[in-house]
Amino acid sequence: MRNLTKLKTDLDVVYSGNIVDYLDVDYVYIPMKKNYKTLVKNNEIVNKGEILLEDNLNKIVSPVSGKVIGMTTLNIDGNLGNAIVIENSFKEEEKKSRKYKDNKFDRDAIISKLYEFYFKYIASVLETKKINNLIISGFDDEPYIQNNAYVLKKYHKEILEMADILATSFSIKRTSIVIKSNNAENIETFLARIGTYPNIFLELIEDRYLLGKPFFLLEYLNLKEMDSFVIDAKTMYEIYNALKYNKTTYETFITVAGPSLAKSMVLKVKVGTIFKDIIDNKIKIINKKPNLFILDGLMTGKPCQIEKTIVTKNTLGLIVIPDEEVKESKCINCGMCYKICPVKVNPKRVMDTKIKSHNCINCGLCSYICPCNINLRRYLEDNHE
Ligand code: SF4
Ligand code: SF4
């Protein structure tokens, strides 16, 4: 078994108990994607749910009703890119593309609905692979990010119901809800409910970094990729809304956390919201000295400007810490970066030789462990093609 790392989580972070909604945004920003056709023009009025961009396989819909007022350049998932700006009219009329008579939960109906509601990857796996183990991951990998844990806590009934529907419709032998063993609240919640579902099991795992990646989780649980499938709690909840209520998901869950904040929280926000609006409207910063805003977490994230960074479907959240200078010193050849690397890359060698390593999964453990504070990820990322 691979040796996975228990990360230090000793920052002074206090969370609010519940998910906080922030959905009434004045503007949303929709990333323009390479090779996608743009279907709207400047000054055009769009309805919530209307297709804005599409390629042969995917469609990107508007999360609000409003007016297209231009285009701007923003930080999108850590890279600069263009986005369409929509001014929210707060008229949430959803464009009805199709009427539904009923909700059938047989195999074919589920697959076709998953395709229709843009769960293409999940639909194709369920369509083509015989799944014997369905794993619902109800935890998050990045320290201080709590999205899946909070979604699991709040929507446990919906997630259990959906897991049961999938298990029955696809004759899945074993379905497990996976929770970290230090999350007493979620364990208690599920122990109280799971008895209603005799074919769903609770699986407790240690608090170890990288178990959020399906490959590592399956290996840890001694399961084979061939007949197992991992879906996270956030996605299960979205699938529930699509299958049960024909609802497209326009929102996502993100964490804004850190010792610079009066309270850290998990928020439900519209996809396309700019971070500055979230901070201004929902977050109280108590550290009056300069702060550093790290998009997507301390291990894999990057510093960002909140005025220029938007929430996408892939966003995990924002960590806010005092901006203190970290001094890098010269490598002492301790070998710890190599020892900790879960995929056996030698980060120091990459730094010294500039020879690429395609195996690096950008987990950040080498930078985390380095006693000389060398940001090794900088060299590894530069080497990614
Ligand atoms: S970031 Fe890359 S090189 Fe560093 S520990 Fe992770 S996988 Fe290894
Ligand atoms: S962990 Fe840091 S100091 Fe140690 S070998 Fe790697 S780069 Fe050098």
Task: Quickly list its features.
binds iron/sulfur cluster, six-stranded mixed β-sheet, 385 residues, Rossmann fold, 23% strand, globular
Can you describe what's shown?
This protein is of the alpha/beta class. The protein folds into 3 domains: 20-88 and 249-322, no CATH class; 107-245, NADH-ubiquinone oxidoreductase 51kDa subunit (Rossmann fold), CATH 3.40.50.11540; 336-382, no CATH class. Helix content is 27%, strand content 23%. It is built from 12 helices and 17 strands. The chain has helices at residues 107-116, 120-128, 147-154, 156-169, 184-193, 214-220, 233-245, 275-282, 336-340, 347-353, 365-369, 376-382, and strands spanning 20-22, 27-31, 37-38, 45-46, 51-54, 59-61, 66-76, 79-88, 133-137, 174-180, 200-205, 228-232, 251-257, 265-270, 291-295, 302-303, 317-322. It has a 6-stranded mixed sheet with strand order 1-14-13-17-15-16, sandwiched between helices. A 4-stranded antiparallel sheet has the order 2-8-7-4, with no helix packed on it. Strands 11-10-9-12 form a 4-stranded parallel sheet. The radius of gyration is 22 Å and the shape is globular. The mean pLDDT is 93. The site of one iron/sulfur cluster (SF4) has 14 residues, from helix 9.
The chain-level structural class is alpha/beta
Beta-strand percent range: 15-25%
User: Radius of gyration over alpha carbons?
Assistant: 22 Å
Write the H/E string, N to C.
Answer: EEEEEEEEHHEHHEHEHEHEEHEEEHHHH
Oligomer: single chain
Give the overall shape, derived from the CA principal axes.
globular
Poorly predicted runs are none
Distance between the termini: 30 Å
Helical residue percent band: 25-40%
Count of DSSP strands: 17
Count of individual domains: 3
Major sheet characteristics: 6 strands, mixed
Which cofactor or ligand species appear? iron/sulfur cluster
In order across it, which strands form the biggest sheet?
1-14-13-17-15-16
User: Number of helical segments?
Assistant: 12
> What's the pLDDT, averaged over the residues?
93
